[in-house]
């Protein structure tokens, strides 16, 4: 197995509600679990996973004027990791989207930049400068996380077989990432 002993693996929102059968499923999203489990076998400085962790009255939900169906309500089955994900390898879990008044796509900050998730401080404390990112959805939360990681000076690698988006063809997004200096694997 490769060694990434100076890097962090960041797994974005691999939760039941974003997988087939969930309330906000990414088509074929379950296909990324085996590649993520393979990544989990490598030697990492740390492994961090994020979870949407919404209150029942979250502003992103359609019934509260938002664009999305109700999803990843805190402490529900939909917010849990799937049984097939090797969660025993995860060192830290970052919860996002806790404020009912603002959504949070990025693993670093909410969309309004009101709240930090604490991820930047965690990575700084661990002296991590390189992030390997994967997860769901590539064109929403993974993209927002990559944008914030770059803005905060991290070296970023995206593991594309371990990521899936709502848009069927990720090519334009991957090209945009490459132009921003992201390594695509």
Description:
21% of the residues lie in helices and 24% in strands. The mean pLDDT is 97. It has one domain (3-184): 3-Layer(aba) Sandwich (Rossmann fold), CATH 3.40.50.850. It has 185 residues and is of the alpha/beta class. It has a six-stranded parallel beta sheet with strand order 3-2-1-4-5-6, with helices on both faces. Helix 3 links the parallel strand 4 (130-136) and strand 5 (155-164). The chain has four helices and six strands, in the order βαββαβαβαβ. This is nicotinamidase. Pathway: Cofactor biosynthesis; nicotinate biosynthesis; nicotinate from nicotinamide: step 1/1. Pfam families: Isochorismatase (PF00857). GO terms for molecular function: metal ion binding; nicotinamidase activity.
Key terms:
185 residues, six-stranded parallel beta sheet, metal-binding, metal ion binding
